[in-house]
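Lab notes, practical 5.
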Amino acid sequence: MKLFDILVPSALLIALPAMGQGLHQEIEVEREIVPVERDANRINTLPALSLPPVTPAKLKLSERIVTARVPNNVSVLEPAAYGDSLEPSPYRGYVALGIFPLYNVDFSAGYAAVKNSDTQLNFWTQYNGLLYRRDRGPEYETRYWRDHTVSVGTTLSQKIGRKSMLRASADYTFASHTISPFDEPFHYQLNSDRANIRAAFGSRCEGLRYSIGAKFGYFGYSPTETDLDAAGEYNYGLDLEGSIGAGETSDFRLGADVEILSSRSYFSVIEDANVGGKTRGLVDVTPAYRFHGTNFEAQLGARLGISINDGKTFHVAPDVLLGWHPSSFFAISATATGGVKVNSLASLNDVTPYCNPFVQYSSSNIPYDFGATVTVGPFRGAYISLSGSYAKANDWLMPSLQQEWQGGQSFVPVDVSGWRAGVTVGYDYRDFASVALSYETAPGDYDDCYYLWRDRARHVFNGQLTVRPIENFSVTAGMEWRTGRRILYRFYEPGTAIPPVEYCENLKNISNLSLGFAYDYTPALTFFVRGENLLNHRHIILGDRISNGITALLGATYKF
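Output from the prediction step:
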């Protein structure tokens, strides 16, 4: 993937769809199946506005296909194309700002300091700030929740000759969030630091392609008003990948990823770990055979995991993908994946930023995750897609009611298995309007649930309508409704044969109605207004945090 080559142009173009630019022609569905690995599956339980995010570059050190399902989150901005599909941008920099009382500020900026056919050097920054009133009664010592996150980063892409490429990136993020211990009147600010450095070299020789990469990361908490040692973690990694062609339509691939984590914490849920920290790791070996024909493509592979000082040593999971698209109006795909999930502190912070800052956790294992999708259309602008999956996860970390006095969300390892089913329909009417509706459902019991939905939601509905009544002006309305959200916890009476008692905390439904307006004053300058949670509905975020009410942003984006 050429993510580094197009980071700044991508960020520039992300702002355009956010201003309401929709499709201006018949819907065109790309049939090539190109799954993408994601580091996080966050459920966006906090309806908050954001400008087009400038995501810290995550260097893709491997071409290995890893599938991931799109998380069900509040989509503030419309999706933008990226990668080789982007046309060269005439702009080298951008700046975007949105603000609205009580205090809601989003700011992002970026600039390509060097931009030529061989070298590209980018710099970027992003700030998100939110302040809103609490809703927990007059006995609490503060009236506000506060969130502040600031990030800076740089990326470098350098061609070496005609067959080699060197990529590198570095980024740093500081975050501060208000934490209130469970049923306690006091609070404190939970601060965290995250830093990443990555580098990768790739080349090809005849039919052989290979890459080698290294990475280093740090994530650590530093809560205020406590003298306890908060959890922190150093992450070291090495990624190797090689492939060799076997004819014009197939190739053999072999990858090996090594990840070592050195942790410190006050408490530990890691088996046999001493309080104070532990060093553990994972080696993933992924052999595979790939075939890519005209109307059919397949990958037949496996994921062989070797855990180091972290529970069971050997793990085997499938790594299979099948895709068939006999015509432009019909396509079928099926996947079978799995593997070990290293529950780093950074990955759990991506689930919810309001984590218990004193606990570290062991890894989880997904023996299998089967999925299938059938798409019919587009036909005269209309399409329908049916999808389903069934997965099993061992020692999967689910939110728990075990709230220590320090506050923040705790997790417990649970063996879960369950299915998920969904349907998506859409229609685009020329340049005037487009609409998309989706519905998904899954069980939400203690051990019978869909493992990626950590709030155990039962029904999820998303809808979006975009209307372009005049040139350069658009109106976008959206609705997300997520029901059945809850935390389940089983309490076992020690030393007795009494069946476990199941406790439940209702997280309340998410009912998020949004409305936005955008006007392109010039190709480089766009003004926008957008409101979220217009029904002023409150729900509970993982970490015992009450969500914000009505939220809005008024601002502009300028490219130069």
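Observations recorded by the TA: DSSP finds two helices and 28 strands in the chain. Residues 1-87, 271-275 have pLDDT under 50 and may be disordered.
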